Amino acid sequence: MERMEASGINSFVALGDSFTEGLNDYGPDGELLGWADRVAAVLSARQPGFGYANLAVRGKLVRHVLEEQIGTAIGLAPGPASTDLVSLAAGGNDILRGADVDELACLFDSGVARLRADGRRVLIFTGFDPRAFPIIRLLRGRIAAYNMHLRAIADERGCELVDLWSMRVLCDPRAWSQDRLHLTSEGHRLVALRTCAVLGLPVDGDWRGPLPAGAPAHTWFSARRQDARWAMDYAMPWLNRRIRGRSSGDGRPPKRPELLPVAAR
Q: Whole-prediction pTM value?
């Protein structure tokens, strides 16, 4: 697949869930950044009049993204559709809830098809390799199967693909927040670098890492204590929300619902 010309992108609309919303990457002003904000800043520096919107909301399933975000993204386009980039990253919440990955991929594909039929440039993301953490790595096979569908969709629909699974640096637990589901600021920075590389944008830095040297590795006992703390602080609240049919994104608006210039941060 040919690489898109990044210099011709007049707008960028980011769709999805918490990954694209930017959890847990906080800027100096206390507001969420994330990989999408970081990529938008690079695009803005290269294109006068550039506009950026981020419609992603934590906890959203693929069907929510299709129903609530895609139509809005198409309506935001200020000019020729071919100059507008839309990123679509979703499915992780569905897989956590036990969704059939074949059916999930068909649903995701319908959203991509809609964007492509409207002339949008579409950027999609595979899922991460979750092998770094107990329990979550039990989903590894299903995520890998979903990723194969996403690669096929990107190939068939003519989309750009950011392969997060192949980013070995993200198998380092230090790239992840304590909840083990959301990247740290450093993790978001690396994803932004990888995304810029896919878009052909020149940046300073290498998405391959390595991460800065950190504290020594945990002993087996300290690691198990961390596992127990994670179960109490994050896994149990997540299960409680599922039982009650609630989502962390219920009632939460997107952080950037309009196409606006990117302010320096």
A: 0.88
